[in-house]
Amino acid sequence: MKADVVIIGSGISGLTAAAILAAKGRKVVIIEKQPRIGGALKRFRRGNIPFDVGFHYTGCLGQGDILHLLWHYCSVLHRLEVLPFPAEGHDRLYINGYPPPVRAYFSYTRFTDELKQHFPAEQGAIDQYFQKIEHICRSIPFYNTKLPLTDFLQGYKPKGHPLSEFLEKITDNRFLQAALANPAILYGVPTDQVSIDVHAMVAHSYYTGAYGIAGGGQAIVDAFQARLQEADTEFLTDRAVASILVDDHGVTGIRTDREETIESDYVIHTGHPSALIDMVPDGCFRPAFRNRLIDLKNSISMFALFGTVSATPGTKAFLDWTNHISIPEGPNSFPPSLKTRSTQRSLMLTCTERTANNTLQPQIKSVILLQPAFWEEVAHFHHCRKGNRPPAYSRLKHTITEQMLQTAEKKWGDYLGPIRPLAMGTPLTFRDELSAPEGCAYGAMHCLNQYNPRPRTRVPGLLLSGQSTLMTGIVGASISGMVSAGEILGLESLWQEIRRWS
Amino acid sequence: MMSEEELRQKVVEVLAEEFELDPDIMTPDATLYDDLGLDSLDAVDMVVVLEKTFKMKLTDETALRSIRTMEDLFQFLLKLQPRA
């Protein structure tokens, strides 16, 4: 089989790269290890109730925003129903020791006003924080699409100061510090290890708007799949890439674990960069780069509890356009330490379907609870694969389920009623379902003492993409897909075409 | 605390190993790009290797960008060494 480009992995970065390349007439083959495409965006069902693993809401879907531009360019936007959060929508922050909930609106102005009402003595600090975030994002082309892309992406970048240091400098109010640090849960790096710049990139997208998608992450996967099928993109699922074939001039193709060979001058690897090492011939990378990939530190993992509550008007009003997040106070509120008990850790309550009723079981509503987790908590089960987990692992899952339910019901039970648990994911689940080493939720960590690999590698034609490269989340992964496609098509000219619509 | 000679030796040793270079050509006047064949893709790898080896942060971007030869690199690292 022959292709212009082989893409390894069918998450949003791979789908985005594929759709861009297909639009330019390139023949693309996508290889996916799992039986279904979509990576963290795909849904799973329990008792006919759909649950989203990785997609709950996103920023950057307003007119002219980066995801809006990309999805338009990829011909998927018209296939999707984007559901903007209404002005009243927000992340409701429950900060330990500070009883009134703080409403983190998806708007600079409204969130600023809310914080100033809660912390009137801290007006200067609040202004300083938001000005800093806006200032940083003005020089980022994804947010200021008038800027060229190449300069931003190229070369060595010095790292700034830790977020926690910045927060401590502007205020000593520990509740305000926690409220400002909160987006850390959306990129999975401890606040004392993340630069204010990385924090700004993620936080900004939520301070400018939040959006759901009718049908959740699966609708996004389906839209890309429909578009790519029109373009004759081939999906080979349920097989892994055993080796990437390389000669003196660069990439020549791939071989799958089913002994299939696909000839191709380009390969985009969207998985965790460390997985690349076993796929390429020895000596392909210099030891410096190889060791850099092996030593990559990973972002935090999650315990994810999927359940249902009664779909009363009350629960719907409580859940549809509000995410509920319980966080500890202080600038280092994220993450907890390994020793922090489940009841003391951050806990996020969100939902899968916003506004829409579950047509099969309209009397219930699905909910998702997310809590930061460490690989060490399940590491002793590392040898067990899906289908042969021992009873001790089930007991651990049961204990964590009980603890998370207890915390959630204590905090939100008055509004939600009892939560009926249906499934629980741990770092082990994420490792096996998403090929994420240590179950990391956001790939290799974008932290101060680490240089994440860039899209281009030393091997001509071999490119990296995905959350570990440029930025996390659906926005970051989509942008990384665009950049890897741009490395093949011409980055700056592609960028000009994409932003033309804004 | 490392002597200047030890530092020079260490730099040559780790770069030779990590970038598969011949130590004999890594003379002070050798240019990183033309003589040693390193390029912009290697720049970050080099920073990572040196930070790990010497257990310090290389944050002066302007100084880093101005490094052309092995001697430039030695001088850059020597300036960062704590004084005895």
Concise structural overview:
With 502 residues, chain A is of the alpha/beta class.
- Overall form of chain B: globular
User: Multimeric state of these chains?
Assistant: heterodimer
Number of beta strands of chain B: 0
- Terminal-residue CA separation of chain B: 7 Å
Distance between the termini of chain A: 38 Å
Q: Give the beta-strand count of chain A.
A: 19
The percentage of residues in β strands of chain B lies in under 5%
**How large a portion of the residues of chain A is in β-strands, by DSSP E?**
15-25%
Count the helices of chain A. How many?
15
H and E string of chain B: HHHH
Query: Regions of chain B with pLDDT < 50 over 5+ consecutive residues?
Result: none
CATH architecture title of the largest domain in chain A: Alpha-Beta Complex
> What is the CATH T-level topology of chain B?
Non-ribosomal Peptide Synthetase Peptidyl Carrier Protein, Chain A
Shape of chain A: globular
Q: Could you name the CATH topology of the largest domain in chain A?
A: Polyamine Oxidase, Chain A, domain 2
In words, what does this structure look like?
The complex is a heterodimer of chains A (502) and B (84). By secondary structure, chain A is an alpha/beta fold. Chain A is built from 15 helices and 19 strands. Chain B is mostly helical and 84 residues long. Chain B is built from four helices and no strands. In chain B, helix 1 (4-18) packs across helix 2. Chain B is globular. The mean pLDDT of chain B is 91. At the A-B interface, helix 10 of A face helix 2 and helix 3 of B.
Keywords:
heterodimer; A: 502 residues; alpha/beta; FAD/NAD(P)-binding domain; Polyamine Oxidase, Chain A, domain 2; five-stranded parallel sheet; 15 helices; 34% helix; 20% strand; globular; B: 84 residues; mainly alpha; Non-ribosomal Peptide Synthetase Peptidyl Carrier Protein, Chain A; 4 helices
